[in-house]
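Data card: per-record layout.
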Amino acid sequence: MLIEAVRGDLTGAHVDAIVNAANSSLLGGGGVDGAIHAAAGPALLAECRELRRTTLPDGLPTGDAVATGAGNLSARWVIHTVGPDRHRGQTDPALLASCFTRSLDVAAELGAGSVAFPAVSAGVYGWAVDDVARIAAGAVRSWAEQHPGDGSSGEPAIALVRFVLFSEAALAAFRAALAAR
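The structure for this 181-residue chain is written out next.
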């Protein structure tokens, strides 16, 4: 699996699935969540409302992930995950790592070969971007080691994980975390 970090706009990522740093309501919000909902158009909100009506009436739990279609985005799917909010006392790194591993589980179930992530929980949820980068890099590497291939060709089911970061500071943090072993 290739793991890389780039600066850019997640909504324009040319991958099979993009990960949304969602809130538990799945009904849109600010930051990455708002940008994804705006770019995807009304079809995304309609799917999220249907999830809430049927399988997730209480919302998506922190650290978990669920997929929808991607509406007007170039990706095929949006994988929604709810990061822990440091301001609300959610400081367990394992909960943040779960956002990345559960999103990869969902992506693999969908058959996605490429996935783009934002810096989940950095920003409004109060996690330092250096911590998010370190935890995300470790979680993705650990997931890749536990899922080395698809069983037939030996190739990883997910060939590319791309962290798409909005700022130079976030990009530098993710590049440093990916360079460290």
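Known properties of this structure: The domain at 2-179 is CATH 3.40.220.10 (Leucine Aminopeptidase, subunit E; domain 1). The two ends are 15 Å apart (CA to CA).

See the next section for split statistics.
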